[in-house]
Amino acid sequence: MVIAIDGPAGAGKSTVARGLAEELGFTYLDSGAMYRCVALTCLEWGADPNASGEATSTAESIEIGFDDGEVLIDGVPVTDEIRTPEVTEAASQVSVHPGVREAMVTEQRRLIAAGPFVAEGRDIATVVSPDSPLKIFLTASPEERAERRAAQTGADVSEVLAAQEDRDRRDSEREHGALLVADDAVTIDSTGLTPDEVISRIAGLARERGLA
Ligand code: DC
Question: 1-26+117-212 maps to which CATH number?
Fold first, then answer.
């Protein structure tokens, strides 16, 4: 069983999904980290993240793992390496290719079958787990999202905002796995809310629905 948390970059999905999983005793799945692993490997192997064939065969060639808060590619920890601005940009590029998405979705379904999970991403409620009993669409104003990212990385807010606009456009316009609000999703706008406030709201919904 999966609680799905989808939404744009900087909406607070990672903090909220991690905290919610801890509160409910579920396992946390960061699906974006998997696209980041494909992107990092493309950059390391000299494969073009914009070339569908190269990115897809890269995605199919690596084994992505999660262990105790660490993200692993073929058993090697890459937790920090996948968070650089270069990898962030390349992750957005590789994630448009249907072959990359198919490889990631297959792996995500295999992982969450062991449930219960809190999974966060863009297409968890719409593609990966459409029968999820609790779907959250977590969003926040573009300015607040950019400010949160800038505070994490020390980057300039206006630069983050510009890059974010590009990625938002790519996320919502791509043909496969686009960022869409599922019909039965609960939308939460986290602008001005603390992570704890969002977590307790979702935990309340999970308990109301008998999931925890
Ligand atoms: O959430 P994030 O910033 O770590 O995601 C990295 C990239 O992967 C981002 O450009 C969107 C993409 N992504 C996706 O296409 N589908 C997902 N389920 C999760 C992330």
Answer: 3.40.50.300
Q: Are 28 and 117 contacting, i.e. CB atoms less than 8 angstroms apart?
A: yes
Query: Domain segments of the chain: what residues?
Result: 1-26+117-212, 31-115
Interacting residues of 144 by C-beta distance below 8 A, sequence separation 6+: 10, 190, 191, 192
Tens-digit pLDDT profile for residues 125-171: 999 999 999 999 999 999 999 999 899 888 999 999 999 999 899 88
CATH of domain 31-115: 3.40.50.300
Whole-model pTM?
0.95
- Ligand 1 mutation target, pool 37, 43, 95, most atoms within 8 A of CB: 95
Same fold, 1-26+117-212 and 31-115: yes
Per-residue model confidence as pLDDT tens digits over 30-49: 999 999 999 999 999 999 99
- Ligand 1: lining residues by beta carbon, under 6 Å: 9, 31-32, 35-36, 91-92, 95, 121-123, 167, 171, 177
